[in-house]
Amino acid sequence: MYRFLLSRQWVILTLLALVLIPVMVELGFWQLHRHEHRVAQNTLIADNLEAKPVPATDLTSPGHTVPRSDYWRRVTATGTYDTAHEVVVRRRTNADDQVGFHVLTPLVTNDGQVLLVNRGWVPAASDQTAFPKVPAPPKGRVTVVGRLMADETTGESGIKDLKGLPPRQTMLIDSKQQAEELGRKVLGGYVELTSPEPKDGVPEPIGAPDHDSIGPHMAYAVQWWLFTAGVPAGWWILVRRERRDREAAAQTAPSDEDVPAPA
């Protein structure tokens, strides 16, 4: 009755179905894990943004690698901006996806160490090799509050650390690179400035990271598992249809009695 399943065509179709089932199950779990990662990330961001600000030196030090658990933690520091060693970070976008620069200004703290402060975004000049117009930060002693971030790397950001750039321009925010340039001890990582707010909104402050959206990963996981359930169901429907077609063909085939005898 089902001997046709041993045919080459049906053996291949059955093997294909058996391969698709675990692959789709695994794809579903992959999307589920991405959903769980996004939820955990959102929770981390929300908790760190709501946490009480602490001195930057409580969470980082020269040569320190900021762990992910400390990303977006609000930190404070008091010192004086060193505008003579201010640099801009190329190919950065603002909230409207306009390409420009991030302004990175060293803050020399009371103990002589340096904290890198990303003061925000400014538009690029018409000449990409020219240093953009950057409003000066507050003069004298100032206390800043910002979100702690880790040093940027090519591996994490996908941005190539190009060499031979114009003076005072860089591709990545790297405290170790800046320490070599400044000849000072630079605290690991950097902060995205949130307070005090710049005069007239320039540089344009960097917005807080999104921690509300969870993305479509859970929906994709459910879709893959529905596809998984559909494979054996579809296979069985095809088998039943094949069987009916073969039975119908057998019933309509002429019998030996219907075949005319040779003259």
UniProtKB/TrEMBL annotation:
UniProt cross-references to Pfam families, sorted A to Z: SURF1
Keyword set includes Cell membrane: yes
Membrane topology: Multi-pass membrane protein
Main location: membrane
Protein localization: Cell membrane; Membrane
InterPro entries the UniProt entry points to: Surf1/Shy1 (IPR002994), Surf1/Surf4 (IPR045214)
Keywords tagged on the record: Cell membrane, Membrane, Transmembrane, Transmembrane helix
Family, as annotated: Belongs to the SURF1 family.
Record's protein name: SURF1-like protein
Organism: Streptomyces monticola
